[in-house]
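User: Hey, my collaborator sent me this sequence without any context and asked if I could get a structure. I don't really work with proteins. Can you help?
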Amino acid sequence: MLDRRLQPWVWRARAESLTGWPSWILLLISGGLASLAMAPLHNWLVLVPSLAVLLWQVDGARRRARPLRAAFLAGFIFAMGYFMAGTFWVGYAFANRDAAFIPLIPIALPIFAAMLAVFWGGAMALYAALAQKSEWRVLVFAASIALFEYLRGHVLSGLPWNLPAYAWAAGGPVSQTASWFGVYGLSLLTVLMAVSPAIMASRRLTSRRAMPALAGLAILFLLFASGLARLSGPALPDQPDIRLRIVQSAITQQEKWANGNQLVVRERYLALTGEHGLDEVTHILWPEGALPYYMLEHGETLARIGETLSEGQVLMAGINRRDQAEDPVTYYNALALMSFENGIPRSRGLYDKVRLVPFGEIIPLSGLLSLIGFDEFARLQFTPGPGAAVMDVPGAPTMMPLICYEAIFPGFVGEMGAERPGWLFNLSNDAWFGDTSGPEQHLNQARYRAIEFGLPMIRTASRGYSGVIDPFGRMPVEIGPSEEGAFDVGLPQPLQKTTYASFGNYPFFFVVLGIFVGVLVQRYRFLKQRKGSQP
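Assistant: No problem. I've predicted the 3D structure and written it out in structure-token form, which is a compact way to encode the shape of the chain:
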């Protein structure tokens, strides 16, 4: 017979009754454990015990004097552990920028995690307000988290990093669910599947208590089977007469920005670009901010590129640019499309990044930072571009650029509406985050955009993961962060428009609304019956 101390219902009773500092420590540890579900580990099973602790803690909070406050605090502390452990790599960006910013790390990381954790606190307060005692309250739990995760991705500038859906490695069977339900819908199902077994933790296990867990298993089987079916087709052919050269340099952030290294970096990119086989290439792809200066203002650099490339070849390069006609001068993180006729540069298109990284490219509360002595940090800011764009690319299908951070926003690609591009180009600089989990998390999230919209993606990332991503999120060509060279690849053909591309998040909202309406109707009937039974 199982020792009483090891029985799940005992764990549940203890978790529900725990308060104060012991409760906070348990929640922090559970949240940190949940982060192991994200890339690179994708250990999604850890969500089962970690979310069980959160559910039990909030169920206990619902019986206290101030249930909403206690529920909010439980969700907030759990998420602090989750985001502190899952996004610790943010500190590397401060250290890589300048040693002077290292003192900001102990301040910035908790603030960053707290800004994200507020949404989980709100989700748990909503759950505490709406959920009934029924075993199916797990539906409200999952819907509340999914709804607030959507809000986290949209409120202010939004930051949908490490959504529950990303526990599933992109390109695998379950990840294919994003093609019809999106990552917010898959997040709802992921939380529901993971938390359902927590209901079985009872002194007497009945068939009624087992039903949510059985439903969760059925959903997992359905998602896995439908994903396998979607992936079982033949390999997609490449677009004819297109050969892309991904230029990957292993230059670190320190090397790139070291004094006197500008020409060294340029010559390295030109040497890689000019490697054997260039005559067969139609397009050359450089990553975000490839050169550590304003390339479009540097005539010598443009002339050197013109000497390297032949007529008809197109350079697609991430650049930093400035508009000196503005007062004050404005700076942009941009993508430039260029061809060269007789060595003379010709602009084929320009896109300015729209979604800027908080504290990296745009500084919230910059006035406050200036007051406490970080004037230089507050001054170096980019200006956002006018909006998402589909660009005409000579010799290739139309393309939508996603510069770095923009690839984590599902709705950003959807802003194109009926103007569907032929492919996505994600250029990034992941050198900021060193040898941490950051680049792998970034890659996994970018691959979901290909799944959602049924579009191929080409990715080139400094000290990150580059390569070819097919419309199923698989990577037939993957180039690691430390690899360097010129990698010639084809461009896969797109799929037909996906359900998600057609309807966006409307199916997700329909399901969430249905759950909340069902709960409110149930509550109304209960109150009506109780009122009718009173003398």
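In plain terms: The radius of gyration is 25 Å. You can pass these tokens on to your collaborator as they are.
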